[in-house]
Amino acid sequence: MRRVAVAAFAIACAALPLRSTAAQTPVSIPVYGLPGAFAAVDASGTATIDDAAAGRLRFVPVANFTLPASAAYLRQAIVWVRIPNDGLRFDRTFAVETSFDVNAATLYAAKAGGGWTATDFGMSVPYAQRPIQRLVPTARVPEAAPGPLFLRLAYERSSPRLLLVNDAAIAAEEVEERAQEPAQEFFLGVFVTLALTNLALFTFARSYLYVLYSFAMMLAAANTGTVGYPLAWKWFWPALAPPHFLTYQLLGGLAVTAIVFLTSELLSVRDFWPRVDRFVRAFAAVAFLNGVASALWYASLRAGPATFDELIRLAQFVPFVALIACGIQAWRLRNPNAPFVVIGYACQTIGIGLYISNIWVVGGETHAAIFVALGLSTDGLLLFGALAARLQQTQREAVVHARLAAEQRLLASTDGLTGVANRRAYDEALAREWERAARDGSEISLIIFDVDFFKRYNDTYGHVAGDLCLQHVAKAAQSCLRRPGDLFARYGGEEFVALLPQTSAAAAFEIAEAMCAAVKRLHIEHSASSLGIVSISAGVAAATARPFAEMTLARAADAALYRAKESGRNRAASLQRLGSDQPIEPALH
Q1: What total number of domains does the chain contain?
Q2: Are 267 and 330 in contact (CB under 8 A)?
Q3: Is pLDDT above 90 for 465?
Q4: Which domain does 524 fall in, by range?
């Protein structure tokens, strides 16, 4: 697959000289219904209607006229067209129509008493102010205009199309334009819906990919509604003049950058082809910078070398070719997002191919924008599917990670021998409950106990038996706790603790006695004990958590435990309730 990527790059680079040659190849102006028309190039861009009428421009028949090589991607060409009225009937039933490529167009018609009537009708004219309110720039020919007509055309993208149409043709084309509007509305709705949906998903998933996708879809909507088929200026801003064509380069550069970065992340290209990933991102950055430069420094770029135009096209073309190769490789590596990306790019390529065939083969652009919008919307839906698949995968991974983290936390806070909480969990719970008791002013109690003569038990019965003994003792003692908030933990060796929030000293002492009784009921043989069975001794302490540190409570319970042992073992002992100025005095119960 590395060879595939290299081949894709080679093909893209090979396209550079081909397109440069194409840009330098003279292109004629398609003129329909205007026999005898002549055209001339205004190289300086300063010629006036008087210059054109006086023959100061070099007019040649339109059939022999070709655009100069300077009329390239970023270079505005000014062309004058002279239309003689010999043998033609120019009256109110006729109009001159041009194409979306014409940024500025002016129709000049001679007045009967001298002078000229100028009618502006290019794309720079707001929709509400156009002589004939159509998306396609159209100007009506004045009735019985004497002398020839002159057209001044300023355009950048390609050759302008000129057509002499009558009212019936205009009406038919308006019907066709209205028939296309639902399709454009649908595509705009698709892009906007996908963008808003992913913004909503971002509030849950918190992944920048959803913002990047929403940004790309909004740019696609902007391109569809303003560049491909400029309905937005009719629907939303009829009183505003559309921005210069090259400002759309900013939209294109941003769209390329967003889609390339999104696709690179979905395919995880850096994991298997890190160099290709850096290469693709670099080209996407070039496309973005081109958009910014085109929008801000149009005049300077227009005067630049012709090869700069082709570098811009290459910067926008190469990343997609490379990403298709990356998508195929990711598909081979079983990336779940790869099928969505590859099929989406294939649909987008088909849409662009249909657009080109409709323009170049069929010879018109009636439905051309719909093909591109169809390809882009299909690609957008499939990329949305890739993001949905990624979200599902992320959720599954999050569930697995959460389960593993919970298990690790449980293992980290559980004693491996007895299965109860360990010393670490006890220390954390004591600090937490002490702080809570200090806020509430409530009482907190602690029980500490250990197994009587446990060292003798190990020496007599062995460590395996000693481990089993601790397990049984822990289970019996833990069963005496009454509330879910109580914590039972192994303190170390044969010592155990019970932390009892919001529990009085008397209630804690009852629990301690119940633990002693529960262990005795096990009747575990202990020949080295005076009782002949395993027993425990417990110390109980309680305090109101205001003037004391939590370790004071532990020391008090430990003191009570030693008091119980000194008193004969197999019993519980308690301290008086600890207060702000009370001494810690052990007292047997």
Answers
A1: 3
A2: yes
A3: yes
A4: 423-588
